[in-house]
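Quick start: what a row looks like.
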Amino acid sequence: MKATRMHARLALDRLLAEFPQLVPLEGTVNGGAEDLIEWDGIAVSAHWVEHLWRVADFYRRVDSKTVKSVLEIGPGLGFSTLAHIAFNPHLKTVVNVDIVPVLYLATQFLKSTGCARVVDYREIHSAGGIKQSLGDNGQVTIFQLPPWEMPNIDIEFDLFLNAASMQEMTEPIIENYIRHVNRLVRGYCFLLMGDPDIPADGDAVPARYIRELLKTHFPHRTKITDGWSEIYERSSYVPQLLCSGSA
């Protein structure tokens, strides 16, 4: 744990040298996190620093003014959501889709941070889905959604996110998710997955399969080998930015 905190401290200092406007968010250590480091007098999670580096890779290449809405499948507790909030003052809407046990814990965690309005499944279901008016309140709104409610999303997104989990799913589930991504997302996909040019290991779904499902709507791909990949050396996964024809 000490080595993890030391690495996070070094990684954070390097990130702040490039992005001095970044400020810490309260609450990333809520729930009893043990990987604490201090940032301007506020305790933050070392794990969150890694998410900040991933998000930095995206905003080095895309103007934050063009990203006001984000859809993420498999966000876990929502550290990437908090990283985008820290980086992007123009962000208005985030929709997080995950399995119910994770979604429940993440909803309570994100509510505890106080950094955004968090809308849980009950409110979404009562409203008949996600409509623009639900998030039009002058602050970032985070919708916490189970997978079966995706057909009831009635807004468009500038950015789709997934970090590694799609390659752990079955092909029919991947196809269903990407059908909604192609329907809803108009700008970018930012994926952490295996290199589509290299065969997958073990039982993982090949990254090439996922890339092909997205290729028609997002024809332009950039493989990112600096930034997060250098700092954290997760050699089995590569951040990849996909752009639509209109982005």
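That is the whole record. Strands lie at 36-39, 42-45, 69-73, 93-97, 117-119, 141-145, 157-163, 185-193, 220-223, 238-243. The domain at 51-243 is CATH 3.40.50.150 (Rossmann fold).
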